[in-house]
Design brief:
The complex is a heterodimer of chains A (338) and B (167). By secondary structure, chain A is of the alpha+beta class. In chain A, 40% of the residues lie in helices and 16% in strands. The longest helix of chain A is centred in the C-terminal third of the chain and has 25 residues, at 235-259. The longest helix of chain B has 17 residues, at 133-149.
Chain lengths: 338, 167
């Protein structure tokens, strides 16, 4: 299997051309669909799976938007190749058979054309997905929805007038839509505001995961924010709601980044050290124009408790020291930039 | 004694926990105990009850939220039971939504706050009025006309009979 067949390696989103791409790495849309009358993956026999793949491949070939799709048959690929597809967020760990001692099941496949992929025989027969650069829910949804409509005209999907699109797990039923953004929030993590943000998310029906989606840990301050529910709201409502909240999180992150030291109102000694360490690294690598190292050195000594207390006529145990410290840091940084 | 969890194998581990002054004892077979995070080498409990219950919920996913009362229900299309769903959190086929309809309606309401899909409507290929007897009739009459025109009387007779049944 030749991965170079994929234009952009299936990762056009890496080009950072999308909106807000310094904070939002990518926007992902996923739709879950099943073929009517065929047992869901959990219950499907190997013959069911291969029949689903055949049917989808035929439909794709005669469709408008998947006619030139590159097909990867995971059960015929080596583990390292499958892992590469997973690391590119093109297939799930489950489909690629990367769980301990697992192997990809017969009929497990990925079709990719342009920026839209279709996982075949995952937890649901079809998982259509698209990844876009930056914060771009509308374009990503439009593209995935178009492929969905294409296939749905050729293959009968399982649909129920009350419950909507039927999925193997009822948490996905209805729209089958999971919209998510991969967002980098070091500012909120450093200022320890992140927990408030994450708690707020669950109150507004959103959820967060790590870099590789469900069950993965949060590493490197990367968070995947997505809708929790899929039923009872229209696709547009789900996307608008996520969009609104993400815009707010982006704003908080921008404020946190901007205000880390310059606008801080209270700073503990430890926080100050951590932030100064970051600034020092930035200056040392010539990523930041200033402040000068002399100023950074001075801050290191003069923000300690005894120095601050003496400077302001207080005791070292004074509860207001964090405020005094923040004011002192601001003064020194402002003096330097003026 | 049979395992409280799978009800198939013999229970070899007794797990007793006290919470809020009440004692809970579970009898588990080796496989089920391992699945639930109990170290069987010497029957050491690996995790406290909180994690143990967490593991139970995690194993069944959303299925664990369905009350056990309907466990015996079976989907005639795929043969899976409501019990299977409680254990795995996954349904067997699209007909399960019809077979377990009232249980799933409750569950969907708990999960999503609603069981009524308001998103995109979908019409499967071939369904174009196919489920609606009126449009089916119109379709058959059109076919009958074509058959008569083409002097295909055998087909025409068959179509006429099918139309009579529908009418």
């Amino acid at each position: 299997m030749d991965l170079s067949l994929l234009p952009d390696g299936g990762m056009r989103w890496l080009d950072a051309s999308g909106p807000k791409s310094t904070i939002v790495l990518s926007t992902r849309i996923r739709l879950a669909r099943n073929v009517r009358g065929v047992p869901f993956s959990q219950r499907a026999k190997d013959t069911d799976r291969t029949a689903v793949l055949e049917r989808i491949s035929e439909a794709a070939a005669s469709s408008d938007r998947l006619a030139a799709a590159v097909a990867f048959h995971l059960d015929q690929m080596d583990r390292p190749e499958r892992q590469v597809l997973h690391e590119r967020h093109l297939v799930s760990k489950e489909l690629a058979g990367l769980e301990r001692e697992a192997r990809p099941r017969p009929g497990a496949a990925l079709l990719v054309q342009d920026q839209v992929g279709v996982m075949v025989n995952e937890e649901d027969h079809l998982r259509l997905h698209g990844m876009w650069s930056g914060f771009d829910l509308e374009d990503a949804y439009a593209a995935v929805e178009a492929v969905d409509a294409d296939l749905g005209r050729l293959v009968p999907f399982a649909f129920h007038p009350e419950f909507g699109y039927l999925t193997s797990c009822p948490t996905n039923a209805g729209t089958g839509l999971r919209a998510s953004v991969l967002i980098h929030l070091p500012g909120l993590v450093l200022t320890k505001e992140i927990n408030k943000v994450l708690q707020g998310l669950s109150q507004v029906g959103l959820t967060f995961r790590g870099l590789y989606g469900e069950g993965s840990e949060v590493v490197g301050n990367f968070f995947q924010l997505s809708n929790q529910t899929t039923l009872g709201k229209t696709e547009d409502e789900l996307i608008d709601h996520l969009g609104k909240i993400v815009r707010q999180v982006i704003e908080y992150e921008e404020q946190a980044r901007d205000g880390l030291l310059k606008h801080a109102r209270r700073l503990s000694f430890e926080e100050t050290m951590n932030l100064l360490s970051g600034v020092r690294l930035g200056v040392g690598l010539n990523l930041l124009p200033g402040p000068g190292v002399y100023t950074l050195n001075k801050l290191l000594i003069y923000t300690q408790p005894a120095h601050l207390a003496a400077m302001d006529g207080r005791s070292t145990g004074d509860r207001e020291l964090p405020t005094v410290r923040a004011a002192f840091v601001r003064r020194l940084l402002e003096a330097e930039s003026s | 004694m049979l395992c409280d969890n799978c009800k198939e194998r013999d229970a070899i581990i007794n797990l007793t926990q006290v919470e809020h002054d009440s004692k809970v004892t579970l009898h588990l077979c080796e496989q089920c105990a391992q699945q639930k995070g109990v170290e069987t080498g010497g029957a050491v409990l690996k995790s406290p009850l909180g994690n143990f219950l967490g593991a139970v919920v995690k194993g069944g996913g959303a299925g664990a939220l369905v009350p056990a009362a309907g466990d015996g229900l079976r989907c005639p299309a795929c043969g899976s039971t409501l019990r299977d769903f409680r254990d795995s959190g996954r349904l067997g086929c699209d007909q399960c939504y019809v077979s377990f309809d009232s249980h799933l309606r409750d569950l969907l309401r708990r999960l999503h706050g609603s069981s009524q899909h308001v998103g995109e409507r979908y019409e499967a290929p071939g369904d174009n009025g196919g489920d609606d007897p009126r449009s089916r009739l119109l379709d058959l009459k059109a076919q009958l006309r074509r058959a008569v025109e083409g002097e295909n009387f055998e087909l025409a007779a068959e179509l006429r009979d099918r139309i009579r049944v529908l009418e």
